[in-house]
Design goal:
The chain is α+β, with helices and mostly antiparallel strands and about 425 residues long. The chain is built from 18 helices and 15 strands. The protein has 2 domains: about 25-160 and about 320-380, Periplasmic binding protein-like II (D-Maltodextrin-Binding Protein, domain 2, 3-Layer(aba) Sandwich); about 160-320, Periplasmic binding protein-like II (D-Maltodextrin-Binding Protein, domain 2), CATH 3.40.190. The longest helix is centred in the N-terminal third of the chain and has 17 residues, at about 55-75. It is globular, with a radius of gyration of 22 Å. Pfam families: SBP_bac_1.
């Protein structure tokens, strides 16, 4: 799953890999619910499940095709899908005692929601039905677990890479993308264009993904040993200083004026597609968007530039996931589990993630031929094997932490607070939640 709202002043994405392939014959034949019942499930007959998911548009259509596939094979458990990207409504429905029977979420929300009782633990079902958790990429699965409890299962993994317009780079005399952060800064200056004091093209939006570059600088957001949040870690500071230096090069007024004229993300007017950005940092789904909205774009995909003083941190990145879970308080948890288990089987996982251009989370899905026609899949799959990919710490206060960090990051870029003041505010706000 991917967030559909892109803040041009703060791009916090997220990114990881995996899976397609083979499972047992029952799984590949559609995971009929009746056969599951005979193996120990207690799903009632002829139930209807409500399924809330966060995807919209063509992505929602891809999921609805899977729902139709399930419904045809399982007349006693019918699923009704609803595109619902307002996740606060999920929480309101759960706490109000009227939850959907199954729902999607982002991995960073699993631990906060699970620990607070909004998600039903799945471990008994996983053990009973022999779901092989070793088949999941560890970094992806870890986002769905807390203190040994599995609250969700990841359907897709997301990681960011550098996209560049080959024609624009060639016009500026570059025959390839920047490899180091120093080169990245040079490229941004050379590729940006101002006319009469107004920006008409940016080498790269300066409010870049602070999480990805934090890991490129060897930074960390949380010290597990001391139970201390570390927004003031030197690596975090270096990432923000990188973005701040580029931001100040153009100024808030000029950047705001420029961003007000940018087109919608999922359209031919996407600023990278239309040449407003010479480079962009984005996720594995972007090539599928390019194929749909800008098929003639001459572009390349490259690793995130690395800090030349820390070459051992090449190919750093931030991993995020999209997951399915069963809300607490559902009326037919056995039926919900049967559908959830079927969704995350390698065949369905490959069908869905290939349609979206996402990375699967099960190793057994890697070789599925459905990925052969997914643009950019090989580049992202290779990148996903990097040992320098990390995830934001899975903690009960992750949501509050990321929200406050985002607020202060934007304030720092705009000069409303100093770097030290902003990060101290994050620490003062979040550390009490740890304690």
């Amino acid at each position: 799953m991917r967030k559909k709202v892109i803040g041009w002043s703060l791009v916090c994405i997220l990114i990881f890999t995996i899976a397609a392939g083979c499972s047992n014959n029952n799984e590949q034949e559609g995971g009929n619910a009746n056969s599951d019942s005979n193996n120990g499930g207690d799903a009632p007959e002829k139930v209807e499940l409500s399924f809330w998911y966060g995807w919209t548009g063509p992505e929602a259509e891809a999921l609805e095709k899977l729902i139709a596939k399930w419904n045809e094979a399982n007349p006693n458990i019918q699923v009704k899908g609803l595109s619902q990207s307002d996740y606060q409504k999920q929480l309101t429905a759960i706490t109000g005692g009227n939850p959907p029977d199954i729902a999607s979420q982002f991995g960073q929300n699993v631990v906060p929601w699970g620990d607070r009782g909004a998600m039903m633990p799945l471990d008994e079902y996983i053990s009973r039905d022999g779901v092989d958790l070793n088949d999941f990429v560890p970094a992806a699965l870890s986002s769905s677990q807390s203190d040994g409890v599995t609250y969700a299962l990841p359907i897709a993994m997301h990681v960011s890479m550098l996209f560049y317009n080959k024609d624009i780079l060639a016009e500026a005399g570059y025959d390839g993308p920047p490899e180091t952060i120093s080169e990245l800064k040079e490229y941004i200056t050379a590729l940006s264009v101002e006319e009469d004091g107004r920006l008409t093209r940016l080498g790269l939006w300066p409010g870049m993904d602070a999480y990805t570059f934090t890991y490129a600088y060897g930074g960390s957001f949380y010290d597990e040993a001391s139970k201390e949040v570390t927004p003031d870690h030197p690596g975090v500071k270096s990432a923000i200083e990188l973005a701040k230096g580029i931001w100040d090069q153009f100024g808030s007024d000029n950047l705001d004026r420029f961003s007000s004229g940018l087109g919608q993300y999922a359209s031919a007017q996407n600023p990278f597609f239309s040449g407003k950005y010479a480079m962009t940092i984005d996720g594995e789904w972007l090539p599928t968007f390019i194929k749909q909205y800008a098929p003639d774009l001459n572009y390349g995909i490259a690793p995130i530039p690395y800090d030349e003083s820390n070459p051992e941190l090449k190919n750093a990145g931030n991993v995020t996931t999209s997951v399915f879970y069963i809300p607490d308080g559902v009326k037919n948890p056995d039926a919900s589990w049967q559908f959830l288990k079927w969704l995350i089987e390698p065949e369905q996982m490959a069908e869905f993630t290939a349609a979206l251009g996402n990375l699967p989370t099960r190793s057994s899905a890697f070789g599925n031929p459905l990925y052969n026609d997914v643009p950019g899949f090989k580049e992202f799959l290779d990148y996903s094997s990097s040992p320098n990919l990390q995830s934001f710490p899975a903690t009960p206060f992750a949501n509050e932490y990321m929200t406050e960090f985002g607020v202060q990051y934007d304030a720092i870029l705009r000069g409303k607070v100093s770097l030290e003041e902003g990060l101290q505010k994050v620490k003062e706000e979040i550390q009490p939640l740890v304690e």
